Amino acid sequence: MPRCGVGAGGPRPRSGSEERCHARKFQLQARGYEHIKEGAEKRGTSTERAKEIAARTADKERAHSGESGTLGTASLRDPKSASERGGELSHSGAEGPTKDPLHEEARRRNVDGRSSMNKEQLRKALGR
Do 105 and 54 fall into the same domain? Predict the structure, then answer.
């Protein structure tokens, strides 16, 4: 099914309902961008860095929903959108995730004895 304003022959003049569709999508995207930016600023991130985080997240959401021509590697690997993923891929450097995300996942999976486990034990219990 073609997206708003895009048919088989390429862009075409939009009808009134398509204009409203695009306006609504733009409003939602702008609100999401502002929400992400404000959240980052509240956590102490600089304004410039907050803008960058918000823009990247908004771009990922657009790509994931098919509104952009490309998908990043995380979007290709994971069917979840950026907001659904909620930082799951964060802290995945050389040492892997920190203990806190591992403990949170163990809590969600209801792993017995998780409170007394160290990072390595949590990893093993989660099958990582």
Answer: no
Specify the pTM.
0.40
At residue 84's C-alpha, the angle toward residues 80 and 90, to 5°, is: 90
In this structure, are 96 and 81 located in the same domain?
no
Looking at the chain, the whole-number percentage of residues with pLDDT higher than 90 is: 18
- Shared domain for 97 and 76, answered yes or no, is no
Residue whose pair of structure tokens reads 């991130």 in the numeric block: 45
102 vs 28: CA distance, rounded Å: 32
Residue 110: pLDDT band (50, 70, 90) is very high
Domain span at residue 74 reads 1-7+14-87
Alpha carbon distance 104, 122 (integer Å): 10
Q: Which of 31, 37, 35, 61 is nearest to 49 (CA)?
A: 37
Question: Based on the domain organization, do 71 and 104 belong to the same domain?
Answer: no
